[in-house]
Structure formats: structure tokens, C-alpha cells
Amino acid sequence: MSFNTTDTSNTLYPGLDVSSLSWAEHKWVAWYVWWGNPVIATGMISFLMHEIVYFGRSIPWVIVDAIPYFRRWKLQPNKIPSPEEQWDCVKQVLWAHITVELPTIWLFHPMAEFVGMKTYHVPFPSLSTMAWQIAFFMFFEDLFHWAAHRLLHTPLLYKYIHKIHHHYAAPFGLAAEYAHPAEVFILGMGTLGGSLVLCFFTEVHFVSFFIWVIVKLFQAIDSHSGYDFPWSLQHILPFWSGAEHHDFHHMAFTDNYATSFRWWDTIFGTDKKYHAYRARVKAAKAKAATLAEFSKAEQEIANQVLAEGLKTEAAIEARLKKKSS
User: Fold this and answer.
1) Where does this protein chiefly localize (predicted)?
2) Which residue has the higher pLDDT, 84 or 320?
3) How many whole angstroms from its chain centre is CA 25?
4) What is the C-alpha to C-alpha distance for residues 278 and 235, in angstroms, rounded to an integer?
5) From CA 92, how far away is CA 129, in angstroms rounded?
6) pTM flag (> 0.70)
7) Phi and psi of 74, rounded to 5°?
């Protein structure tokens, strides 16, 4: 795709000196000129990016699940998703993408323009500007996700919306967006909201939001991977949640509601069962004479947590049934 002087370029970029652009900015201009309509251009690049990154990042985890060597780092090693489960998951994810994310993506450009976000414009902001803005988006989304996720665990919202996401007690990468369309919309507002809010205080460019969504997709997919490697980010940044943190939420149906960071769960006390579980695992490891003995003990603890989680889920639905009767 190359940039040529056309009526569209004169409309969108009057007087633009193409030679002053970086390689990335040149490609950005060429994309918008080629489509000839900023709304369509923004929608297409957003949707294509989302699908390529989501499924592209999920494929390595599908491969990892198929190789027994990696089971030593699997958080729930006895629960490997079957090809049938993965295909069913893909169908639900695609349904949510088409019914919720695709319309939201097409509406994003008008919303962004309304609050003053730069979209097709060049030049891009500096790297330092993009860095602090993306950090703000992460902070905003993490707090929003914690609060919205807690609400999704109230009886009514859990039974009719959030329960779909908890179909897999042992999550895997593809299941990051396996959810009811309403949940995709609710939690998606946290991803979008930070950039829109920040526009009221400073200039924000769509490219900063674009990069943030890529970061968010990697984070969401990896936190649902079900694997905790020695080199996983939570071992480098202790405040990072990661798969080890979120896997417990799926196993126990409670605790660990945040998405990227651990601090909101710590501040609001929604990680007590998680820490009790980790303490039991640590004690079992200290007591075990062999690796096999520890693995057996760890599995027994996990089974107990899962059983307790199923009781928690049943209790949530029982409360709703009692209220409606």
C-alpha cells in the first residue's frame, strides 16, 4: 500500500509534507487514504488487529497444551482442553466478536472523534507520551475490571451472564474472551473507557489506544493460559497477576477479581482464600519427601478448592432462586 496524492489525501491531510513522516506514520496515512473514509479505516484496522492478535496469540497456547513436556508447568495438569472443547470455545468467542465487538469497533471512531481523540492524524505522539498514557489505560481498566467483575459475581448477573465464562474451571488461552456478549460489552467498557476519559484532560491519539489493546489482549490470553513458567512475568513483577493468580479464580469461583495487577484484591481483601490456598500448597511442598508425593498432595488440595468452588457457585444460584420464589 503506497501513499499517493488524491482527493482523499487533500481532504484528510491538506498541505502534509510526506517526507517528514516516519515509516509507521507513512503507512498510517496510506491506510486512511486508501480507504477514503476514516470511520471505515479505523473500524477495519481495529477489527483486523483484534482478530489477528487474539487468535495469533492463542495458537501458541494450543500448541503448548498438545505437548506433554509442558505439563510440569500446568497449574491444573489433569485438565487439558480437548480439541472439541477448544473448537466450541472458538465458536462462542467468534459469536461474541461478531455480535458485540464488531459493532463496538465501528462505533468507536465517532465516539473518539466526539471526545477529541486524534485518529487518522499525524504525526504520532512521542514514545514517552504513549508510554504514560498506556500505563493510565492499564490502571483504569484494572480498577474497572475489579469492580465490574465483583458485580458479575452477584447472583443475578452471575447466573445469566458471567456463568458462561466460568464454564472452564481450568482456563486456556482461547477462553480469555469466552463469555456472554453482555459480559464482553461490560468489561470492554473498561478497555475503552480509560482512553475516552483521558481525552477530557489531554490530547490522546488512537495509536496509543491501538497499542494498548494489543497489550491488553496479550495480558488477557496469557492470564487464561493455565501455565505458570519460572520466567512468567509475575515472578519478575510481584504485583502482576498472571495465570497463577487468575487460574485460582476459575478453580475456586471466587477471589482474585482484578485483571492485570494484584493490589486491588489485596486492598479490598478479595484474595484471602487464594493466600490460604497458596499457604496449604507451600506446607504440602515442605512436608513431601518426593516430587511425586508433592504433586499428589497439590492435586488433592486443588480438588478440594474446586469442590468448594462448585459449592460457592451453587450457593449463588440458590440465593437467586430463593429471592425469585
Assistant:
1) membrane
2) 84
3) 27
4) 15
5) 37
6) yes
7) -75, 130
